[in-house]
Amino acid sequence: MTPDLEATLKRLPDRPGVYLMKDTRGTVIYVGKAQSLRNRVRSYWQKQTGGGESQLIRSVIDRIADLEYTMTDSVSEALLLEINLVKRYRPRYNIRLKDDKSYPFIKITLAEEFPRVERTRKLPADGSRYFGPYASASSVDEAMNLIRRIFPFRTCTLDIHEGRKAIERPCLLYHIKRCQAPCVGYISKADYRAQIEQIERFLEGRQEVVARELSNQMRAASEATEYERAAALRDKVRAIERTMESQKMAAHSTTEEDVLGLARQDAQAAVQLFAVRGGKMVGRDVFLLDAPRESDDATVLAGFVQQYYERATSVPPAVLVPCAPADAADLEAYLAGRRGGAVRFHVPQRGEKRELLELASRNATETLAREHARWLADQGKTLAALEELAEALGLAGPPVRIECYDISNLQGAQSVGSMVVFEDGRPRTGEYRRFRIKTVQGPNDYASHQEVLRRRFKRAKSGEEGSEEELRWRLPDLVVIDGGKGQLSAAKEVLGELGYDDLAVVGLAKEREEIFLSDREEPVLLPTTSPALYLMQRLRDEAHRFAITYHRSLRARAATHSAFDDLPGVGPKRRAALLRVFGSARRVREAPLEQVAAVPGIGAALAAKIKAGLEG
After folding, report:
1. Distance between CA atoms of 294 and 60, rounded to whole angstroms?
2. What percent of the chain has pLDDT over 90?
């Protein structure tokens, strides 16, 4: 234990909070919460055994070099802070939902007169209603396709208001009965809203209520001799009944509950979630997690519950689990706050609930086995590609870290460079870098590459050995330059200047996928079916994509450049205020000083600077 760490442990308060454990490089390797920071954190260095979390931390105790903590007013606040810190730092020894930032939801835009139903991955407070999260985009699409067949809804972004046509003729979706064309007034606001309410009830799992409403409407239409409308309503009722039949669970109780089945394999876990509402299974999804081998099932379940229900739009009063999660009482209090009512974890021992839980666990096990087999296959292909590449290029071993560079410009304007990084054959997007070319005028690909490489490899020695900065700029095993012999020679010249003559560098020409090496006359041509060639193409295409995306953003910024942009003290809000009043920079320049000063947020002194700047 270092003196600094020992001092920190002595200062720990007897208060709720969150703690961050760091290794010698300053990397956060674990984030935890506690009712008492003093008692929880100190217990990790004590000899007696503890729960799953204590066992996990003790297994890596020698790696902990530093500790930070933040006090909170309650355990619930600590739990929320812990969730956010796990998302931010993605610590190696925490349970982490894979792609937890991008799980999709179904969104109903209730703030609009004629709401839309759409897929989204963001949850702004914009008056919309959200359902989810779903485990994948395909799960959302399946749900949306089902409700679209029963309840046609609009998907366009037209600004539609009652009593006013947005367009003259309806689109194709109206003709194939997937939309009721509110854009041309074919359905009233009240009728459309009633249909949206039915969609909400359907997504809530209250299909029987929707079926009953539609049946009543069907009978009324039949009695009014509106047989075509009655037939359409009959088809909707039948579709809902088929859905309800597929969701029924034999003799199951009508209580609302979520069922969490758990499976573990190596450092991965899967949780199968069954959402049961009113005796029907209204949702089923499998979520994958990164789960250290040292963690126990209770810790894995706790991690999933925290991260899933933090964004879930529906929290039931009961959650069936194979074992009680770690800190179950704290989690129940947290979920009760999210639901606005009591929530309890239940570990069923027998009967139908136990059978349902076992079914969920079997599904999770099967999904995890498929995922693991796919991962092993991908890993095998990647290793084969790296080994083949090493043999073809005469490298000492498979290149673990590969960097690829590309230049993008338009006739020399807005010239930029990109650096993409692959480790073990997979993109490391957090280490991608982009460079705005500063010293080269015109379309000079060779000189641009040299500037980028010079700036990048000067950073290779930044930071102390083992520091986070040094690791971020560590040397690659292979450098790939997008281009032929000329670009390769320019790159070798710069690397020689900086003392990296021994670094493996190749050029990849696009036309025939030729790989140029400085010590060979003839280029290397990999077989068209070669995994190594596919890997090189992926590298080159990713570098090109990253460069051209940056180049386009700079061009777009330049195209929208305004005379106001160079004026000191004029930001977006003041620029918008000036344009609202005057309409253009020319009219501001021609206007009297008093009129410019009268614009909200400007004033006499700034108005004088603006006039001087525009006239200069």
Report:
1. 9
2. 22
